[in-house]
Amino acid sequence: MDLNTLTKILNLPDYKVTQIISITDTQMHLRIEPRKQKKAICSGCGEIHTKGYHSEKEVIVEDLAISARRVFLHVKKRLYRCPKDQRIYTEKIAWLNKSSRFTYRFSNEVNRLTAITTNQEAGWYLGLDDEVVYRIDKEMLTEQAKKKLIPTPKAIHLSVDEVSYKKYHRYLTNVIDLDQRLVIWNAKGRKQEVLNQYYQGLGEDCKKIKSVALDGAKHYISSTSKYAVNALIVYDKFHVIQRLNQTVDRVRKEELARASEEGKQELVELTNCKQRFILLKNKNKLTEKQRGYLDKLYQINRPIYEAMLLKESFLEIYNYKKVEEAKECLENWIAQALSSGLKAFMELGHKFSEKKDYILNWFKKKISSAISEGFNNKIKRLKRMAYGYKDINYFRLKIHQHCGLLNPRLNTINAT
After folding, report:
1. Taking the model in full, what pTM does it have?
2. DSSP string, 367-409
């Protein structure tokens, strides 16, 4: 093949192919050199050097494949003595990282592949070791994060939630922009100090936040109240109902344990784990068979019957359109829960009493952090695909790649 044609195909600024070293069915080795008019840029000070030439060396770097052949470029790099500190530096090449053995466009291809599959599969496809793919991907994501995640991204409507990344209660805190539906910030831990870091990164822009959807955690509420002073804090409907279902299930477990001790086999069969989903299902969506199951359960177990009544009566609150009506209904429900005699619902009544204003804020601004749960499922899937992550900072970057501002699909959408 003609060298000029190869030079045009490679399209590397200020460089030309000077020799075809070898071509096989799987690989192509090409020697490239800088054009005579190309001036050397010092990798130390970043300035152009015309004097102080020291020597030159050849490095082998991998580029994008051509005709199903892996392309390896033998690049001649010049070394200059920098007049500022008298140290010897290798010239800076725009399309090549200083310490990498891959061109930027090849590294970008690796990064795009890891956004849709695992590092192991991407490595198999490209013929690279898993560790090499990890280093390339992390380097690219770190570089992108400096451009898109620094300074701290701003948002008007937020959702804050936590996700487990490791056993023994190891968590990450994720902040989601509800307008863009993207993760814009995350950090290790779930304490108040962790979320404080996000708000502190915003500075005065915290005052521009209009609403924040939370799961009701006190540490998140305290942090948001301290910094986002103008924000409406919403204990969103999704997590309220989730807490309600957990309480119903707690009553079921208590009654199941009691029935097992007393040898009530019929009650055990009606309250075992296989029947759990029926208790948590919306009453209006039950089948005739499931309704018959509940009617039978109500007849032989009063606590579960009361728990279901409390659940259904609470859901009626969300049918109101005015805050005043919802407030009256919520206060009546809290009174019923506290006097129910069911320990689980008495505790829930106290918690809802403390966070009553945040529950009612949902009627003022109907935002939800349900999207956070969707992202949590995606993050857990990402973790399972990789069989876990030893490097927590790399895992945080991968979350941004799959769920946030570092997703390469965003560039495609913006381009169209």
Report:
1. 0.84
2. --SHHHHHHHHHHHHHHHHTT--S-HHHHHHHHHHHHBTT-HH
